[in-house]
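Note to self: user wants both folds in one dump. Writing first protein now.
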Amino acid sequence: MITVMIVKNIIKIVLVLVVILILVLAGFFVICAVKGSKNVMQFTDENGQILEDSIAERVTIPVNGRDNTMIIRGRDSKKPVILFISGGPGVPQYWLNEAYQYKYPNHIEDEYVVCWWDYRGEGLSYSSDIDPAEITMDQLVSDACVVCDYLKERFCTDRVYLMAHSNGTNLALRLAMKHPEYFNAYFSMGQNANTAYGRHEAGYYFMKDIFEKNNDEKNLKKLESLVETVDGHICLKDKYNDDDWEGMLLSAGCATTRDMRSDATGIFLPHMLSGCYTLSEKINYWRGKLMMTKTPYSEECKQVVEEIKLDIPLIFLSGYYDYTTPVSDAKDMYDRVEATDKAFYLFNNSAHSPLWEENEQVLEVMRAYVR
């Protein structure tokens, strides 16, 4: 009898917890829906009036048989135009400007008219009828050219600027090499070099030093458990340890930003609570990211570019604490680049996102290349 009563009480507790969980999730999605909209944040004066020469809108255009949507914002529509290619793959980044406007204010839109392009299959350009097989590096390079043509015509300019972050630098580098005629300069933030051992080996030694200085035995032990030595190099024991490796980067302050310790609270929740997408668009954002893992483009991003020649200036922007795309890898690539002009800038208080973490310092660098 006592055993039966205990079982019944456990069942009741479990049911209550399930109901609470359902209510919490329902409440969360209601909040996400209420906060979401298709409205793009406008530039206004002290009286709340929209600035006369500003631009802040969503634009959808046909691009090689697929609709591509982009958010275009600039305090002054007569400023130079810059195409921003996001990382991931499949992780558009405009929303960071709204979600982190007080913590990491980003004023790039004061300096440029920024086209935050959601390329084929990601973010606002996601569609459930897209075949992942159609998303290749060559296809996205071709798509980017169509977007550039649109920007040139709309803003009456011969060339635009190019900026990319993280995984997006794989696409941007190839785009800049194949089609320099579109661009004044390429700003590469967190350039992905894809060296054989660089990312994990460099990250291992850097994080080990941090954990040792902090007497963090727990993370030291976990770090050691993830790696092994092969041919004299440090590498992951198992490719499926990538998620655990990302956890290490977060713990050491070497991931998206120096102070981010969780992708859930630092990326997922702020994104879902942002106001620039509807609830369905927020869901599609993550569906697009998942789909990108199944595309040829995702695999092509892992290929090393052996010979790099650019007919435009190339500017590398790297964070000292960035071990998502380690500085050492970026410097190795920089050393073998042939370009009209090239420069490497290191931001000592940044991890993977100098544009947000040290915004004014990055913009100061970028101003030097504006024609």
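First done. Writing the second protein, which came from a different request thread.
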Amino acid sequence: MGEVYVNRRKMQLDIVEGDLVVEDGAIEALGPDGLVKVQGDVRCTGDCDFLCSVEANKIESRRGDILVEGGLKAEAVEVKRGSLEVRGDMDVKQLRVSKSLTAHGTVKSEYVNTGGTFNARGLVESHRVVVGGSFHAETDVNIDNIDVGGSAKVGGETRGTSIRVGGTFTGEGPVRVEEVDVGGSFKANGTADIDSIDVGGTVRLSGGRVARTLEVGGSLKSSEPLEFGDLDVGGTISLSGGEGGDINVGGTLKSDEKLRFKNINVGGTVKIDGGGEGENVTVGGTLKVYGNLGLSERLKVGGKAAVDGDVNADSIRVGGKLEAYKAEADKFIEANVLRTRHGAKATRIEIGRKGEARGPLIGQVVIAKERSELEDVWADEIQLRSRVRAGYLYGRRVHLEQGCEVEGVTYTEDLRTETSVKMRNAPQKVEKLPDPPF
């Protein structure tokens, strides 16, 4: 096997039985198929142009740029201190480029590593792609592992196992991978099908599925319904409805459509259009729901809770005001202000000091603290602390502390009143109380 040497000139070749050495030269194909086939290795120095397609065992460049006008097929390609541009299809098992890599056709490679940029205009299929700077694919990619130091953008569909990007990732088509780890921002303009996402900055989705966890340091937004496992976001979440597990947000949660969840824990505010279903909701600030809110366990709000529909839970505790069409709890309802159109019902209802209840209250025990105001009450035990004003009371046992004012009392067992109690109608003891509104 011999060696063909090309130095600062253009040479036409067909088949090279040994190695091909090119120094600042150009190679053309001798045959009509436009292919130069090297049975050995290709060694390049300086800028080298292959005005044809090339097949070789290995292609190595010590310095300078390589241009291939046609396709490129090799076991390994290594370009040191230079760039590589291939205008045809590439089929290279191991591909290393120190500066930039530009591929106009399809790229098939087990391993791609470039220190600068990787621009791909055709399909990319690889086990692993490592890019020090930026990666831009105009169409689909099928890459098991994407590892990019700067930014990555895929114009078509992204398929693989993992995406790791130091800066930003943008997928114009569907993104179907197992894991996403991005330091800056992650954006999927197509449907997402991802197991887990961990992003330091922001996440923008067009709906789809995040099966296990989605952790975001900044904000999360999905413009279409999202199926999710657990969401843990430091700033804000904006959804268009969906269904999933736990939602933990430091700031605010907003959903434009109905939301099904396991637990919601929000430090600031929650707003849900279309109603919500879940187990627990804990909000430090305010809660607003347009539609019904159904919880199998607890609703706890530090400030105000407003539900334009019915609210149902095992227990309800609101530090400020609770507004709803109707409020029902298996155990208790506690609020400073409770306003309903159709009433509130629980085993135990407690209205805070100087509080207010609009709408009938129904329960086993109803307690109104000092100087609060109520409408009608149905309960086994009714306790009005000092200077409470109320409508009609219907109870088995009724206790009115000093200074209370009520429209009237109907009871079956016991009525206790302290000094200065005013009743506009005389109390009535009966065998059976009238039925409550519901």
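Dump finished. Worth passing along: The radius of gyration is 36 Å.
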